[in-house]
Amino acid sequence: xxxxxxxxxxxxxxxxxxxxxxxxxxxxxxxxxxxxxxxxxxxxxxxxxxxxxxxxxxxxxxxxxxxxxxxxxxxxxxxxxxxxxxxxxxxxxxxxxxxxxxxxxxxxxxxxxxxxxxxxxxxxxxxxxxxxxxxxxxxxxxxxxxxxxxxxxxxxxxxxxxxxx
Length: 165
Hints:
The protein is mostly helical. 68% of the residues lie in helices and 6% in strands. The protein has a single domain, classed as TerB-like (Orthogonal Bundle), CATH 1.10.3680. A two-stranded antiparallel sheet has the order 1-2. Strand 1 and strand 2 form a beta hairpin. Helix 2 crosses helix 5, helix 2 packs antiparallel against helix 7 and helix 3 packs across helix 4. The longest helix has 18 residues. The model has no long low-confidence stretch (mean pLDDT 86).
């Protein structure tokens, strides 16, 4: 065992760690190795998509899976990194927004070109439909976030599952 002492508190960690703990550490190493602007962008995307999934106050496993798949496909992330980003976004939603969501989309509007912002709106629609239905709060959240991103969107396209661009 290794003991690390700081002041009055001591932390002890066994030399043999569990495979699950080591897998988490490896995922964290992958996350830390990412370029900060890339990580910031993908974290903002995960946050925005989670905002859609949480609009009806229930984030289903299918919605989480859809967000993870979109991050893997669009961001080239390892699945474990995508899972971690989505879970971090979910926990931020549980802890309370305090206006941070608007700051995230405002940042995306400044940093992403129109094509990327439109793809994000398409991804929001995909997430809203992932659980088999697009609820009125999800529709309203998509409309609101699309406006924050500077993307014009017809409500009918949300219901049909495509933004039409």
